[in-house]
Amino acid sequence: MPNDLPILRLDGEDAEAKRSQILDLFHSGFSRYEQLFEHLADARAWYEKAIPLRHPLIFYFGHTAVFFINKLIVAGLLDEHLNPRFESLFAVGVDEMSWDDLDESHYDWPAVEAVRAYRDTVRDTVDTVIRRLPLSLPITWGSPWWAILMGIEHENIHLETSSVLMRQLPLPRVRAVAAFAPEPMGEVRRAPQNALQPVAGGRVHLGKRRDSPLYGWDNEYGTHELDLDDFAASRYLVSNGEFLPFVEAGGYADARWWTQEGDAWRRFAGVEHPTFWRRVGDAWKLRLIAEERPMPWDWPVEVNYHEACAFLAWKSAQSGERLRLPTEDEWRRLRVLSGLPDSDAWETAPGQIALAYGCSPCAVDKFRHGDFYDVIGNVWQWTETPIYPFPGFEVHPYYDDFTVPTFDQQHSLIKGGSFISCGNETQREARYAFRRHFFQHAGFRYVRSDNPLPQVPVYESDALVAQYCDFHYGPEHFEVPNYPAAMVRLAMEAMAGRPCRRALDIGCAVGRASFELARHFEQVTGIDFSTRFIQVGVALQRSGRFPYAVVDEGELLSYHTAELAPPGLSENAGKVEFFQGDACNLKPVFTDYDLVLAANLIDRLREPKRFLEDITFRLRPGGLLVISSPYTWLEEFTPREHWLGGFKKDGENYTTLQGLHDALDAHFRLLLGFPRDVPFVIRETDRKYQHTLAEVTIWEKRSE
Questions:
Q1: 463-701 maps to which CATH number?
Q2: How far apart are CA 542 and CA 133, in angstroms?
Q3: Can you name the CATH fold of 15-178?
């Protein structure tokens, strides 16, 4: 069975030996991921959705390879895309987002062999980067090598989530793969009798140091400490056998046991038992990835958060004890008391983890860790803690929306890893969270505890998002009008007498101009590269309000709320659709617009000329392209050779306006009255503001 023990450390003395380790780790993970997809038995398996809120598996086959290329480009390790269509089509889809429209009409999935050939090219490309990139130790958060490690660990995540989707496909769609053989079929055993074991309280310390020798995702860094009182925890994970009486008692039909959110999910899903259970006559079977077998009653039950909480409400009523899921801190206390070292010190896996002993759960009394079993491994364990940032949290510039979109109190932490968890997922500090209705290879244990539940702060935004909320929805400063609204007013003056059917706000940030355009257009598309920005627009659509905090001075903040109602934007907000996307690599569906607004965008693109060439064919004849920019060309955003202007050409000054003419004149004419300067002010602190002039040009697309 392939596994990655011990996991990679980022320190050491021999850089070339480390390079060889990374190369081996990359190839083994890349191959293992491809082996997983050998489970798909026919063509339909690749293109049939396992669940409505996820893409079909062809997406995930391409996604992890595309991730490598996109992150290597962001890190400056590659200069150009290998396959721009694939690197757009397969880019986004980890967690269902309300703005991620999964209407199949938007996706023209390629053939499996085309994606397989693309993966071969990606393998060769990443191999070459690893072999040639200068390497010094230790590898740190700021090293370009982080992008490579990020790709490797990202593929580990999707190894697991893709295996869950395969487990949810119809059984005829999958077949057995020897490399992922489950726990051997043994005699069907009764579940061991579970019981509460005392746990000594104490101080827990969570959070990874920046100089940790292990790779980490952004949410792992920072510091969290808490003193816990004594509590008790179940000796075993809840088994299928322990869960069965809840099913037989009609627990899935009784709203008393379900939270309001859980009951809404129960009614919507129409569930009667755990999703991987199958009833055949009077017998129960368990669905694994590629087989069904007689129910192993001594294996852990695999359920979502809602099912776990409903069971515990029922069990509490039966036992007279107040039982609940453990918090992240309480799980960590079990982890500390287990005496288990972190995974970089393992010589052999101490539990059913990292594919070390089989690709399935196993008996809940097989792996003992101190006074408890399966503190790590077997299946993930749901907790009562929504994921939140530790003090000192920062997003990584290569992947700024890995965790931030989950700081919404709707994603609960799972701990401990599962049988197929590899790499970072095996670490003590690993912090993964999923929406509460999702299925992973996840189960639970329970606690009896008087420790208070965590008071998790609402993560409103980071500093940049807050700054843009204030820029778009905050008060005017120094009598300078709201810039997005001013840009739309200019655009609509130019649109007089023209059809106003579809508008595109590209680089829409937190969405003010998109909502302003919806006053005038039948349909508006807002696209931004940052999911963090898009999330604000979606939140405003849902509730009309979005709270944010801005810096006054030092650590002092003031609290504000972006709103749609006072500026009169609520009425037409439903006309707007928000999408995450790369302005230089848009999907084909984004076309046929009467107006494209590109406000303060071109000098933040890697290839602005490519954007201008592409956007030409997304406008209808007679449509308008509105461009504004302060022309702040910086190599951190745009390589010098891709600047549109702001340099000497043939010994003479060559301005961005000249570059725009050279790029656009073949298909556009510049409207009279332009260029024109429009001011804007961005608040940084209570006493520091950016006052800028953007040059605005409006271009009419010529009739063909």
A1: 3.40.50.150
A2: 46
A3: Four Helix Bundle (Hemerythrin (Met), subunit A) (1.20.120)
Collect all residues with Cβ–Cβ distance below 8 Å to 302 and sequence separation of at least 6.
274, 275, 276, 361, 379, 439, 440, 441, 442, 443
SS3 content of the chain, % helix, strand, coil (to 5): 35, 20, 45
Phi, then psi, of 393 in degrees rounded to 5: -60, 140
Alpha helices (H) in 518-556, listed in sequence order: 531-543
CB 230 within 8 A of CB 200: yes
Q: Give me the pLDDT at residue 546, please.
A: 86
Phi, psi of 563, rounded to the nearest 5 degrees: -135, 150
Burial class (CB in 10 A: 0-12, 13-18, 19+), 482: buried
373 strand-pairing partners:
368
50 versus 99: which is more confidently predicted?
A: 50
Tell me the pLDDT of the chain averaged across its residues.
Answer: 93
Residue 392 pLDDT > 90, yes or no? Answer: no
Condensed to tens digits (0 to 9), the pLDDT of residues 640-678 reads 999 999 999 999 999 999 999 999 999 999 999 999 999
CA distance 38 to 289: 12
Mean pLDDT of 256-282: 95
Token representation of residue 538: 């979606």
- pLDDT tens profile 460-485: 447 889 999 999 999 999 999 999 99
- Per-residue model confidence (pLDDT) at position 620: 97
SS3 for 623-634 is EEEEEEECCCCC
Domain with CATH 1.20.120.450 in the chain: 15-178
Is the pLDDT at 99 greater than 50, yes or no?
A: no
Pick 411 or 460 by higher pLDDT: 411
DSSP 8-state code for residue 173: G
Q: How far, CA to CA in Å, does 437 sit from each of 179, 455, 560?
A: 30, 21, 32
Helix, strand or coil, per DSSP, at residue 314: helix
Residue 4: per-residue pLDDT: 54
Local structure of 607: helix, strand or coil: coil
Total residue length of the chain: 704
Q: Are 375 and 369 in contact (CB under 8 A)?
A: yes
**What's domain 205-448's superfamily in CATH?**
paralog of FGE (formylglycine-generating enzyme) (3.90.1580.10)
Three-state DSSP string of 399-451: ECCCCHHHCCCCEEEEECCCCCCCHHHHCCCCCEEEECCCCCCEECCCEECCC
At 6 the pLDDT is 64
- pLDDT-derived band at 92 (thresholds 50, 70, 90) equals confident
In the chain, residues under CATH classification 3.40.50.150 are 463-701
> Residue 624 phi/psi, 5° resolution?
-115, 140
Give every CB contact of residue 250 below 8 A, 6+ residues apart in sequence.
none
> Is the pLDDT confidence value at 95 over 80?
no
